[in-house]
Write a structure and sequence with these properties.
The protein has 339 residues and is of the alpha/beta class. The chain folds into two domains: 251 residues, Spore Coat Polysaccharide Biosynthesis Protein SpsA, Chain A (Alpha-Beta Complex), CATH 3.90.550; 72 residues. The protein has 13 helices and 13 strands. The strands form three sheets. Strands 2, 3, 4, 5, 6, 7, 10, 11 and 12 form a nine-stranded mixed sheet that branches. Strand 8 and strand 9 form a beta hairpin. It is globular and about 55 Å long.
């Protein structure tokens, strides 16, 4: 449970890190939106683009349109996790905003995030993510339950979420989307960033959020910080749909294998998966079997990461879920603003 929050409001300098791969078609407009938000922010904002060996004209286009943006051009594609880590290491500020190259923030999206920066043990703050049709993405606020040894979604209503906005409140969330969040740079690097196990994409932010909570750090969902993002735009443009789905299903398995306690994992989750696999086999659903096969090949790496999690954690997954699901909405009581 959160205690009443009394904070000193300090508009500290921040960095915005944007990983990019072949995003010339939309990163220029995204950067324009980021710069407009930076103009509205009371502190200094340093924008860093990490280009992950793009084969399009991204680097030249950014340099031509936005010469004040720092561009780190990698010669070898290392994937999303490595690109983010490169940007984090290059940043010089305590707080960093991570944005996908196809995310378009509102002009005032930074202040609602940074109003929480004085909160003890804060790890990250997630944004209100809307699609171009106005739909609020469910990843904007995430709660989960553990059923049959697997994580299941605890739904929320839009009216409930909008009430938080009207009251100026934020609320605990299991994780913040890796494509639009404020994160404490030191804590992110202490965790080792996104695990390479989840490369090339999907569920790395879920795992990061759980690892942060298990350390005793908090993550908030901030409805007043709005960004526009049509999910999958970047990935769907460069990857086959079947491969994307196969990786998504594999990585979902990884999250459970890394964090579910041993007893429910062995007695419920894995036997249930085996039963489902038989059903998929009879129905000719080969994609699911390929995903399981891909995951099984990484069992040694999963065991190492699982042991590391256990050694460094204060809380179990069950305790984390209780903390997130039972924490009340909060609003800051501001002591003073910096001059």
């Amino acid at each position: 449970m959160f205690s009443p929050i009394r904070l000193r409001l300090v508009w500290a300098d921040i960095s915005v890190v944007i990983p990019n791969y072949n995003g010339a078609g939309f990163i220029l407009e995204s950067l324009q939106a980021v710069k407009k938000s930076a103009d509205q922010y009371p502190g200094d904002v340093h924008i860093i683009v990490v280009d992950d060996a793009s084969t399009d004209d991204s680097v030249n286009a950014i340099g031509g349109r936005h010469p004040d943006v720092t561009v780190i051009a990698k010669s070898i594609n290392g994937g999303f996790a490595q690109a983010v880590k490169t940007g984090m290491e290059a940043a010089q500020t305590e707080w960093v905003v991570l944005l996908n190259s196809d995310v378009y923030p509102d002009e005032g999206f930074l202040q609602p995030l940074m109003r929480w920066a004085g909160m003890a043990d804060l790890f990250a703050v997630g944004c209100r993510i809307e699609r171009s049709d106005g739909t609020v993405e469910k990843v904007s606020w995430v709660r989960r339950d553990l059923k049959w040894g697997a994580l299941s979604t605890r739904p929320w209503r839009l009216e409930e979420y909008n009430q938080l906005l009207e009251r100026g409140q934020a609320v605990a969330t299991l994780f913040a989307s890796g494509g639009s969040m404020l994160v404490h740079r030191g804590k992110f690097l202490e965790l080792g960033g996104f695990l390479p196990l989840f490369e090339p994409f999907y569920y790395e932010d879920v795992d990061l959020g759980i690892r942060a909570w298990r350390r005793g750090w908090k993550i908030l969902a901030e409805p007043a910080s709005r960004v526009l993002h049509d999910s999958g735009q970047t990935i769907d443009r460069v990857e086959r749909a079947s491969r994307v789905d196969r990786i998504r299903k594999r990585n979902k398995l990884f999250v459970g294998w890394l964090h579910v306690e041993s007893l429910p994992l062995l007695s419920l989750s894995l036997p249930r998966l085996a039963i489902k696999a038989v059903g998929w086999l009879t129905k000719g659903r080969w994609l699911e079997h390929k995903s399981i096969g891909d995951a099984l090949q990484q069992v040694p790496a999963v065991r190492v990461a699982r042991a590391d999690n256990r050694a460094q954690s204060r809380y179990s997954l069950n305790e984390v879920l209780s903390l997130v699901n039972e924490s009340p909405a909060i609003v800051p009581s501001v002591e003073a603003a910096n001059q």
